[in-house]
Design goal:
Length: 286
């Protein structure tokens, strides 16, 4: 009787077990908009999946600077408004040219950017997109990134580097403006817990007096205004596209429409919404 053959371990897995993690640097470039933090994501040249700008460390170059260089070469990040700060790390497996997996430990650096260049080394080789934090988490498909990106979302104030160990953040009184449902809920929790300060209570009182406390209630409920609904009804593609968009995107569009200060501006925004929906595109700045 022939002896049983020993189970074979694939060469790739065997090599993966023996390999030590290699270091990479990654860039989280973000910008602030009136709709919240937007993060820059790009596609991989090999697989086309969404990733952050990243690369190998560079000799005689600090990791933070190497991350900026990668962001420039891959996405055209030209100007930054804050110094890059180390914000965490993540591990993943990179498929090498020989088909084996190489463990990677990526050190991440975040920074606020003001402008992208139209000319950069890898222009035209990747897709670039500015997306909200939740969309970035969903598209990047790396669970370890979630708490890191969520932390960015909580930075509503201006964040600056103080030194290698500390950062500073501007905390100021709230501007006189409308309140979204989530902000009202936070305010109500602070009031109930006895933690709301006099300036906060005054801001709530003033917003209610000016009619700003509930002005976005229909937006939060995703109620489509009559003039927009009439336009959408003129084209089945436009109506279907808007209906199938994520609630967060529709809420931003409706808030943008309602915040128009003149009728002329509102009509321009209505036309823009209808045109983009008809082409099955999102409004670029959102």
């Amino acid at each position: 009787m022939k002896p049983k053959a020993k189970p074979q371990i694939s060469k790739g897995k065997n090599r993966f077990k023996k390999r030590k993690p290699r270091k990479q640097v990654g860039a989280i470039a973000y910008r602030r908009t009136k709709y919240g933090i937007k993060i820059l994501i790009i596609t991989s040249r090999g697989t086309g999946r969404w990733i952050l700008p990243k690369g190998w460390p560079m000799e005689n170059t600090p990791d933070s600077e190497a991350a900026l260089i990668e962001a420039w070469e891959e996405a055209g990040v030209k100007r930054i408004k804050s110094d890059p700060m180390h914000c965490g790390s993540l591990r993943y497996n990179k498929v090498m040219k020989d088909g084996t997996d190489q463990p990677i430990e990526m050190q991440l650096f975040s920074f606020e950017t003001a402008k992208l260049s139209k000319k950069f080394p890898e222009r035209g080789q990747r897709k670039l997109r500015w997306v909200g934090v939740n969309t970035a988490i969903r598209k990047l498909k790396q669970p370890e990134l979630k708490p890191i990106l969520k932390q960015l979302k909580r930075h509503d104030g201006i964040l600056r580097k103080l030194d290698d160990q500390r950062t500073m953040q501007l905390i100021s009184q709230r501007k006189t403006q409308s309140w979204s449902a989530t902000y009202k809920q936070r305010a109500e929790r602070l009031v109930a817990a006895g933690r709301m300060q006099p300036a906060g209570r005054d801001a709530i009182t003033q917003s209610k007096r000016l009619g700003l406390w509930d002005v976005m209630q229909d937006v939060d409920a995703l109620v489509i205004p009559d003039d927009l609904q009439i336009l959408l009804n003129k084209d089945a593609t436009a109506a279907t596209y808007f209906e199938t968009c994520p609630p967060s995107y529709k809420r931003n569009v409706l808030r943008w429409l309602k915040s128009a200060k003149t009728e002329r501006t509102r009509q321009k925004r209505l036309h823009s919404i209808f045109t983009e929906c008809k082409a099955e595109n999102r409004i670029p700045q959102m």
